[in-house]
Amino acid sequence: MAARPTGPASPTAGPHPNPGRVADGKRLHRLEPEPVKAPVVRRISAELVRDEGLRSIADMITADGLLSPSANVPARNPHRRGSSVALRHKAVRVILGSER
C-alpha cells in the first residue's frame, strides 16, 4: 500500500447528508492533510503544473532535502534504511495516482 498524504478521517465534519445514514448513526468524515507528507504532495502538484517531468520533480524534491515517503516512515520500511532517502520518479507517479 502506498503512503497516504492524508491522515485519519476526522469525526468532526458534522452530520451525514444522507438521512438513511444519519438514522444509522453515521456522521460525515473528511480527511485531514498529514503534516509531514502534505508539503511534498503540494510541491509535486505545483511542479507538475509547471510541466516538469516525473524524474525532474523527483530530483528537485530530493535536492531540496525533502524525504521520500518511505524515508518519512522508517518503521514501515526497515529494509530500506539509508537507501531510500531520495524520491524516485516511480514514487512521484504513485503519489499522483493516489485518490487521497
Please describe what this structure looks like:
A two-stranded antiparallel ribbon has the order 1-2. It has five helices and two strands, in the order E-H-E-H-H-H-H. The relative contact order is 0.19. Helix 2 crosses helix 3 (54-63) and helix 3 (54-63) packs across helix 5 (89-97). It is mainly alpha-helical and 100 residues long.
Treating each run of at least 4 consecutive H or I residues as one helix, how many helices?
Answer: 5
* Spatial order of strands in the largest sheet: 1-2
Task: Compute the separation of the termini in Å.
Answer: 12 Å
Strand content: 5-15%
Name the helix and strand elements from N-terminus to C-terminus, one letter apiece.
EHEHHHH
Gyration radius, rounded = 17 Å
Mean pLDDT level: 77
Shape: elongated
- How is the main sheet built? 2 strands, antiparallel
**Strand segment count:** 2
Low-confidence stretches: none
State the share of residues found in helices, binned by percent: 40-55%
